[in-house]
Amino acid sequence: MNKLCVTLPPFSPDYSGVCSALFELNCLCVIHDASGCTGNYVGYDEPRWYGSRAKVFCSGLREMDAVLGLDEKLIAKVVAAGRDLSPDFVAILGSPVPMVIGTDMGGIAHEIQTELGIPAFGFNCTGLRFYSRGVAEALCSLIDRFTPAEQKHETGDTLNVIGLTPLDFSSNANAEDICAFLARNGFQVTARFSMGITMEQVRKAATADVNLVVSESGLKPAQLLREKFGIPYVVGTPVANDVDLVDELRAAAIDGVNRTIRDESGEGGVLVVADQVLGNSLRRSILKKNPDASVCVGTMFGLNEEISAGQDLDIENERSLLRILRGHRFSKLVADPMICELVEPDDGIETHPLPHVAISSKAHWDRYPLFTGDEMERFVDDLAK
Q1: What is the CATH number of domain 14-129?
Q2: Distance from the CA of 51 to the CA of which of 9, 64, 166, 291 falls in 20 to 30 A?
Q3: Can you spell out the DSSP letters for 126-169?
Q4: Each residue of 287-318: pLDDT tens digit?
């Protein structure tokens, strides 16, 4: 009951993260559930779904299947679909019921791989973990399976962008704008994990000079690329016109040292409730304009201490969030509109809505700002006052 929300909706779960990461590839993605989890993903967690030709399916799990453990039925269905649709690979995802009955997703994937002769992945999704875990596991699986060691160009200007999914960036022009920002500053994008991804990019990812981690879900894949191929990473999201991030990328490409945007500041002042990497980058942009500002980053998706500052908050649930908002510690709040709506007049907090698909889903996914350029520059100006 610790994660129970009374006012806020359920946040995007791990199976939505896996599907989001694989969405633009020629992947047969099957969520093993009755229909609710699949409907939740395509209807509420995926802005790209309408009009797409993505191969995302529900297994049609029924009560008797769960009782008797009829894995052969699932395998037969997936094999038939694979022969009809000719995907490059298959992904089988768990959900709460398979978790409870102990379904062996990896074993099922192995059987499907043997039958179809193409790679198949089994993801032990539970629906009880957040989307970022699913994104990270999917991207790590792609890298492990499809990214071979290749000779680097050693030019210092090629990079991979990691953690770029609509659950953090929506499906507006953010992905294109971030890549255009990098291009304007002399970088060539080798691979985009995941909006704009292709299998060719996945295969070439080891040739990049540096990785840019733009969301917390991209950290583990970047660490895997570091471990396997020695590619350093920089953790930060391009915000406004932040050329400091460009300098960090160039330095990492030269000296091979990982870097994280993570600035200490005083307590109180501005509270940013967002993905940690975006929150850290917003904090830096605010402090550049007002070095005396106090900015705290909070997350409801589990605080990753590797990329957190000392004053940052691990907001466990809605009740914890309400205690923070009622505590008169902060004067400004940057958060999804649904979180901003929890603020009451007596709290004395000025709200600055910043939509997050993983929180408010389709309610606000068409209201996302562009994170680079003048729109976000004005947003940061208001926070720095």
Answers
A1: 3.40.50.1980
A2: 9
A3: -SSSBHHHHHHHHHHHHHHHH---------S-EEEEEEE-HHHH
A4: 999 999 999 999 999 999 999 999 999 999 99
